[in-house]
Amino acid sequence: MSANENHAHGSFIKTSKQLVIVVVLVFIVPIILVVLLSQPAQSAETLDGKKIYDTSCIACHGTGVANAPKFGDKKAWAPHLMHGVEHLQENALKGLRAMPPRGGNLTLSDAEVRAAVDYMVGAVK
User: Fold this and answer.
1) How do residues 26-42 score in pLDDT, each as one tens digit?
2) Three-class DSSP category at 71
3) Is the torsion defined by CA of 83, 48, 61, 121 positive or negative?
4) Are 60 and 66 in contact (CB under 8 A)?
5) CATH code for 44-122?
6) Distance of alpha carbon 61 from its chain centroid, rounded?
7) Comparing C-alpha atoms, which of 74, 75, 57 is closest to residue 66?
8) Which residues pair with 99 in a beta bridge?
9) Nearest CA to 61 among 111, 119, 18?
10) CA 83, 111, 68, 50 torsion: positive or negative?
C-alpha cells in the first residue's frame, strides 16, 4: 500500500480539538433543529382574531362574566368604545379590573391580543 492510498482512507479528524468540535456539533445541531422546527410559524393564521377570541376570550366575553361586555352586544360595548379601540387594546394587554393581562393567556403576542380586540369590536360596529 502506498502513502497516497493510506491518505485517501484517513479520517478528516486529525486532532483532539477537532474531535471535540465534531462531537459537540453532533449533539447541538439536532437540538437546534428541533427547537426551530417546534416554534409556531408566524403567519396570518396567528393573527386570526376569531380564533384567538374562541380560545382565549370567549370564557368571559361570551357569557358576560364579571361584567365583561358580551360579544356582539352593542349596548354593553358602547361605553368602552367611546375611549377608542386603541384604549381597549391597551386594557386588554395590561388587564383591567377582573380581566387579567392578555385575557389570562400570557402566551399571546401584542399583535394577537389586538387582533382579538379588533374582532370583538368589529362585531359591534
Assistant:
1) 888 888 888 888 876 65
2) coil
3) positive
4) yes
5) 1.10.760.10
6) 21
7) 57
8) 96
9) 119
10) positive
H-type alpha helices, the chain: 3-8, 16-38, 49-52, 58-61, 74-81, 85-94, 110-122
Residue for cell digits 445541531? 29
Can you tell me the distance from the alpha carbon of 82 to that of 84, in angstroms, rounded to the nearest whole number?
A: 6
Give the integer Cα–Cα distance in Å for 92 and 68: 11
Q: What are all long-range contacts of 94-99, with beta carbons under 8 Å and residues at least 24 apart?
A: 97/66, 97/67, 98/60, 98/65, 98/66, 98/67, 98/68, 99/60, 99/66, 99/68
Neighbours of 95 (CB within 10 A): 13
| Structure-block grid coordinates of residue 102 | 392578555
| 77-96 pLDDT tens trace | 999 999 999 999 999 999 99
Cβ-proximal residues to 99 (8 Å cutoff; 6+ apart), any chain: 60, 66, 68, 91, 92
Whether pTM exceeds 0.90 = no
C-alpha 32/C-alpha 46 separation (Å) is: 23
